[in-house]
Amino acid sequence: xxxxxxxxxxxxxxxxxxxxxxxxxxxxxxxxxxxxxxxxxxxxxxxxxxxxxxxxxxxxxxxxxxxxxxxxxxxxxxxxxxxxxxxxxxxxxxxxxxxxxxxxxxxxxxxxxxxxxxxxxxxxxxxxxxxxxxxxxxxxxxxxxxxxxxxxxxxxxxxxxxxxxxxxxxxxxxxxxxxxxxxxxxxxxxxxxxxxxxxxxxxxxxxxxxxxxxxxxxxxxxxxxxxxxxxxxxxxxxxxxxxxxxxxxxxxxxxxxxxxxxxxxxxxxxxxxxxxxxxxxxxxxxxxxxxxxxxxxxxxxxxxxxxxxxxxxxxxxxxxxxxxxxxxxxxxxxxxxxxxxxxxxxxxxxxxxxxxxxxxxxxxxxxxxxxxxxxxxxxxxxxxxxxxxxxxxxxxxxxxxxxxxxxxxxxxxxxxxxxxxxxxxxxxxxxxxxxxxxxxxxxxxxxxxxxxxxxxxxxxxxxxxxxxxxxxxxxxxxxxxxxxxxxxxxxxxxxxxxxxxxxxxxxxxxxxxxxxxxxxxxxxxxxxxxxxxxxxxxxxxxxxxxxxxxxxxxxxxxxxxxxxxxxxxxxxxxxxxxxxxxxxxxxxxxxxxxxxxxxxxxxxxxxxxxxxxxxxxxxxxxxxxxxxxxxxxxxxxxxxxxxxxxxxxxxxxxxxxxxxxxxxxxxxxxxxxxxxxxxxxxxxxxxxxxxxxxxxxxxxxxxxxxxxxxxxxxxxxxxxxxxxxxxxxxxxxxxxxxxxxxxxxxxxxxxxxxxxxxxxxxxxxxxxxxxxxx
Length: 774
What we know:
The chain has 774 residues and is an alpha+beta fold. 33% of the residues lie in helices and 14% in strands. The chain is built from 22 helices and 21 strands. Helix 3 packs across helix 14 (455-481), helix 5 (149-164) packs antiparallel against helix 15 (492-505) and helix 9 (299-307) packs parallel to helix 10.
């Protein structure tokens, strides 16, 4: 290339021509100093003696077309000469504008998932679902993705879990060696990979009509999030800076900034407050067009004007930015919009302003400052050069050097910390310029690091991280406004984990994952289990009570409170009980004071319904009682008779243990003469009295527990006679047959045969013949 065609002599010395748009260097227009540390300390790189043609002037060549660049340069040349005056430090302080706005208060802090769903709402999720299913169909019409919103939320929840628990490969989350249950139990490995492969955000068939949009594939999600970020309540202090999204794949949007922690990646210009809450952003695509209706002041200034469109100029928001963006035209344009600004600036961008060199200020010592002021397009500006280890220049339309404060610096010669005077503009810049750096730090703590060759995947993962950080900052703002102590607030890790858990479980059908009846009080059982040893963490309350039995139980409790009633479990007639049955119990004292007529009428209808239920339950109880009584095949029992009780601990067939309890019981009485229910107690007299049905009682077998003589005599009577009349006061529900060998064998075997009636040969237990003969 001929150097004479690129450099040419002019009256002012050697001039540099702007490279053409199609130059290979246009994508490297990022300044080496664009990532300058926001804290102005002894290690700062900016200097008043920098080359006037340094890379900081490169953004002026990043406009869309050549004529626009020429018009901007022509406008700068035609500006009247700016006259700078030295400011005397005595009584030169300026009052900081008072903020006229206020942050809206809240009644209570919401759950983390609610903050997240303010950004990823149902409409945005529906767009992603539709475009993903469409993209899968376009690739293979015979294979449908069948993605829905619940499954998409579960996919995002697994991504958030993966940002907390890192493994080298995504497939290892499902491997048997290092399985992560929070991910593997939500969906299968192949299904997760299929969703990741086909997740899409825009229709590829419309890409040809939007060929100029390099962000076409993520345009819907970017527009949706931008609209929600821009309506967030803004604090007074705001800042503009650039952010890097790590990416090393093939992409025309990829940038290289050597002084950034992540040198390769996508560049995003962000407007946020001092804590990192994002209010607007713009993804750098290789060119920065001027804002419609605003003057073209170069690429670096145009991006600030574009992001500042969401700032309300009437309430004194203060905007901060670094020397990559600063220029006299930018300060003037912001001042005319009512937005005071402050930022570091290069000496070459202060036309007509000259400060002492670093060597001259170094002789005067650390803490030396110079202040000058000028009027640019009707806006008063002040510029201060302060020398610490080297000189730095700061310009502002609202601040000045006074009042001066003292800061501590390390002196290498004296080897101790010394006090150095610091201008007010430097202190304000160091205090309020670190918003984007704070945002980068919060995202870097738990970044989604899933590898992908598709550039829009990297953007999507970064936007999810940005939304979670924004949600957490809003949650912290609400908690601070309510006076919640910091120890009771969730940190970023707990907040992120809660969002991941809710996305994976809340509102989803997880019944197939667990079996069994849940505990009535999960928190109490969990704390009780923790005392016994390590316990697995339980889901949060919003996950446990979003739907299902918990919601039904809560609804029943609320209805019982409104109608002054209580719910009792209804069960059929139980033979081992005393014959009583359970039903709905209602408190008879209905208090209708203060209640509406509809509630009074509803209570009356409820009372009538309960009466019908009681009648039906009574009929059911009588049917169950008759059915159980028909099953009785044993003989009636007499008070004092020794019996065996069924072993209820023997749960099922094949279980070890006798069918009958070997410890005999003694019959006490028969509570209801018309029913086969008896009261029994242990033979020794020690133990509780039990009420049991005749089906669960058995007479003692022969030779084991012989009957008392009076009972045997009353049962058997004289030889050859039939049924012997009962003793006085004993009334049975049916005639009692004589105890025969056949009856005893049938009773012992448990078989149900026909009852023996009429005269029969009496049977007595072995060894009792002599006693009976007497």
